[in-house]
Fold each of these.
Amino acid sequence: MRNKPDAVMLFAAGFGTRMGELTANQPKPLIKVAGKALLDHALDQVSGAGLTKAVVNLHYKGDQIATHLQGNPNIAQSWERKQILETGGGLRAALPILGAGPVFTLNTDAVWTGANPLMTLRNQWDSSRMDALLLLAPPSQIKGFRGTGDFILAPDGRISRANGAPGLAYLGAQILLPKGIETIADQSFSLNILWDQMIANGRAYGVLHTGGWCDVGRPQGIEEAEDMLEAANAV
C-alpha cells in the first residue's frame, strides 16, 4: 500500500439541478467557464500536480463526459449506472481502479487560481498523523460559498466541525485514506461519515489554500468565476 497519494478521484456524477436549464441537455462538468469545460479546469489541476492516474465517476448524461474524455488514456471511468452513489459510495466503487492507500479527491464544479490545490495538499500530507487532509479557506477569500464555514482549524492543524460558528470553507479538494469505507452498509453515502470518524480519532487535518476559488454550482457562479480568472490573469 502506498503512503503518498498518486491517484485522484474526480467527482462528476451529479445532476447539477441548481444550474437549472444549463444542465437540461448537458452534465454540469461540461459547462464552460472562460471557454473551457469545468471538468477540464479540474484536469488542469491534476496535470499541474504531475498525477497520471485519475478516475472520473459518471452517471447523469455520462455518455457526454465519456465522449469528452476520449483519447485520454490516463483517465479511467467509474460508472454509477443504477444510482448516484454520492461521494463516499462513488469513491468506494472506484477504489479497485485507484488502488490501495491515500487518494486525492477533487470536485469538478469549481475554478481555482493561485497555488495548485493538489500540490498544496501533497506538500503537507503526513501519513503518520493523518487519515484526512482537507483544503480550506476563509469564506471572505473565495466566491460562491454560502454559509459561515464548515470547519475550525486548530493551531496543530487538526480540524473540527464549525457547527454554525464562523469557520473555514471546505474547497472540494482533499487527501483521504479511506480506511473503514468497506464497512459502511449503505450503498450511497457521503464522505462526511468517514470525516466524522477521523475527527473523533484526531486524524483529520486541514491546510489553507492561498489563492482564489469559485464555486460554480449555480448559474451566477459562471460570471463570478470568469471575473476571478480575468483578475488573476491581469496580475
Amino acid sequence: MPELTSEGHRAVAELAQRHGVSGEAVRVLLEALAVGGGTQAQFNHPELGGLGQWSQGGMLMVGNMFDHALKARVDALCVELARRMRMEPLLAPATSGASWWPAEFGEPTSSGAQGTLRYAYFPDHRRLVIQRSGQVTIHDTGEHRISGVSQQQGAGQSLTLTSQYGPIRLSELPVIAPAPVGPTNPPAIPATAPSTDPLSLIERLAELRDKGALTEEEFAAKKAELLSRL
C-alpha cells in the first residue's frame, strides 16, 4: 500500500471530515486515482457504495445508481482529490521492485488481491492477468471493458467481473497463455482475438436479460449500440 505524504495525510483527514466518510474511504479513492493517472478510478469500499468507477468529465457508477447523495459525495471527493494530486504529491513514490505481471503491459488501471488470489487489468492491451497461488495466467478481455471486480474468499476463491455487457465469469474469458511469476520471460501474445461479431454479442446480452442481469431498457440500449456497428 503506498505511503501518504504529509500533504496526503492532511488532504485525507480534511476531505473525510468535510464529506462525512472515513479516512480509509478517502484513501481508497486516492489510490484508485493514482492508478488511473488522476483522471479515472475503479474502487471498492462499502462507504462508497461498493464497486464503482469514476472518470474525469462526468462518468460515475456506484453500486446504487439511485442514491444521488452518494453519487454527489463520491464525485466531489474524486474531483477534489484529482485537483490536489495535480498540485502537490499526496502519495510517496513507490519503492523499486519487480511487478508480478508481464512488464510489457505497463501499469494496470485497476488491481487487487485477497489471500493467494490477485488480479491486474490492462484495458489498452485487452488483458486481465490473474495470479492464483503463485501461478500467473493471462486472459483476453476482448470487447469487454471491465468496470468492476468482486472477489470471493474461501477454499474456492473466485472472481466475478462486470463489463458493459453485464456480469461475466472469469472462465468465459479465453486464456491466452500461462506466464511465469514476475515480469521476466513474458509469454508471446497471439495477434488473433476472439470473435466480436455484434450479432453474437446481442445473443449474449439476451441471455443476460433473460437471467435478470440486465433490464429490458439496458438490453435495448446495448442492442441499438451493437446494431449501429453493422
